[in-house]
Amino acid sequence: MSTKPLGAQLSHMLKNRGVEVIFGIPGVHNQEMYRGIEEAGLTHVLARNEQGAGFMADGYARATGGPGVAYVITGPGLCNIMNPVGQAYSDSVPLLVIASCLDETAATRGQLHQMLDQEGAGATVAEWSETARTPDAAYHLIDRALLEFQTSRPRPKLMNVPIALLQGDASSASDRSVQVAFDAPNSDQIARIAQMLSEARRPVVILGGGALRAGARAAQVAANAGAAVFMTNAGRGLCADDAPLSFGARLARSGSADVFAQADLVLVLGSELSECDLYRDPLGHDCPLIRVDLDPQMLADRHRVTDPVLADCTVFCEALLSAMEPSDSDWNPAAVAALRLQWRAETDADCPGIVPLVDALRAVLPSETMIFSDMTQFAYVANETFPMDRPGHWHHPSGFGTLGYALPAAIGGKVGAGDKPVISINGDSGFQYNIQELATAVELGLSLPIIVWDNGKLKEIEDSMVRAQIAPNAVIARNPDFCKLAEAYGARAAAPRSIADFKQAVTDALSADGPTLIHVTPETGTN
User: Fold this and answer.
1) Which single residue of 5, 239, 315, 453 has CA 20 to 30 Å from 403?
2) How many other C-beta atoms can be found within 10 angstroms of the C-beta atom of residue 13?
3) What share of the chain in percent tops pLDDT 70?
């Protein structure tokens, strides 16, 4: 076992545990973490703001399925990354943040980067925030985080390490290999659920992000049951949007409550059924509700679960498929298709001019493209109308709902995805939250189309104010010349003014040797 400063040992340990990339910004307080990065063989991606670093680590985790890791400094570095940590918590993303912290704060004031309670601040957004006081404690917390990412609902963890501890010598962490296996659900319970599905005439299956690891097995459960299918935004692609009994990712359509009112059985695989999934309180069902989730809190919420199953969706689906026989139902594929078309028309009417651009984008993107979107009307429309043929390829900041997510998350996603195409979809306002990360995309030479939907206002907020009979206020802001700004960073830029030009701009950007900003306005979708 070698002896090095603990800051260097942390990088070696992470590399030994399978981590390949660190996102962050060095500072005088956390510089000891950087002593071991190159020596350990890690790649470091320099963000321009710790918020950007956190979203990059988030995007990397979503693209690879492994943990995203970020190094930040004491105080303001930790505060800047709290938004990404909160987003990772709501979206179940395995994000590990390692922050330096002051050695002593009780008797000393006025120190650089001092805050009242750094550990407590982190605990407001992370699943846990702990301070390591010894090298062994630091190693334990890292292993604890990595193990919890694999065995429970993956949520962000935050470890604070005092500066003097980072600087002090420490023996290396011991090697460790953990094989994770989930227990099979109770066989009697599986048999009973299989029987319930076979007897149901109008079953509905909801596929959430917790079913992603189950993959095609989740959709096969629905198909064997003859069930109608809804997906959450996180579960998009688990079932083809145009499958005969698929309603797509349209749970938030008010008309979906009428569908659940017709159901005689509902099976939910890995979804919170949160406000951000439904945008209404009741699901709309009056029948048995089976929920399968790793998080016990989801099994005892307001949705009146009759049959809770605490299990990993992959293991549950495997067991259920072994116990099921294919059955028919009373759902009418023609009626399902007609309702899908009706809801598409409603979406188009709600936000005119966006659906044609979404269709154009789908026409030119390779099917394996990974998409990162921000809180913008373009993404809200696309979440309902852009058909996904594979899971885990559209990533949206649901839940916490942070503006400024899409650009840095797409950068991290592209770092993780390698040659796979990746694009970023932004609104004009949210894009400016982290526009500085264009520098990172240019620095890395990432082939990354960056779509900026510019309607010159906070249109969703303006519409909400109007609905609430509030005179729209503070929803219009002067925007910069986005194309010139991108070029100033060293990126390419395009300003298509027709659908045909938009398709060509996206095609060109996918093959470029650096990032391309594509500036799109409402007029683009009408020409």
Assistant:
1) 239
2) 24
3) 100
Q: How far apart are CA 250 and CA 356, in angstroms?
A: 18
Q: What is the largest CA-CA distance in the chain?
A: 72
Six-digit token string for 296: 């016990």
Q: How many residues does the chain have?
A: 527
Give me the half-sphere count of Cα atoms (radius 13 Å) on the Cβ side of residue 237: 22
410, containing H or E segment: helix 406-417
- Residue 177: Cβ within 10 Å count: 5
Torsion of CA 45, 50, 56, 58, to 10 degrees: 130
d(Cα 353, Cα 33) in Å, to the nearest integer? 49
C-alpha to C-alpha distance for 524 and 349, rounded to whole angstroms: 17
What is the C-alpha to C-alpha distance for residues 220 and 508, in angstroms, rounded to an integer?
38
Go through the domains of the chain in sequence order and give each one's CATH number: 3-170 (3.40.50.970), 187-338 (3.40.50.1220), 351-526 (3.40.50.970)
Q: Which two tokens stand for residue 475?
A: 């929803």
Q: Per residue in 84-100, pLDDT tens?
A: 999 999 999 999 999 99
Question: Look-up: residue for tokens 């609104």?
Answer: 427
Q: What is the 3-state secondary structure (H, E, C) of 44-77?
A: EEECCCHHHHHHHHHHHHHHHCCCEEEEECCCHH
pLDDT tens for each residue of 383-414: 999 999 899 999 999 999 999 999 999 999 99
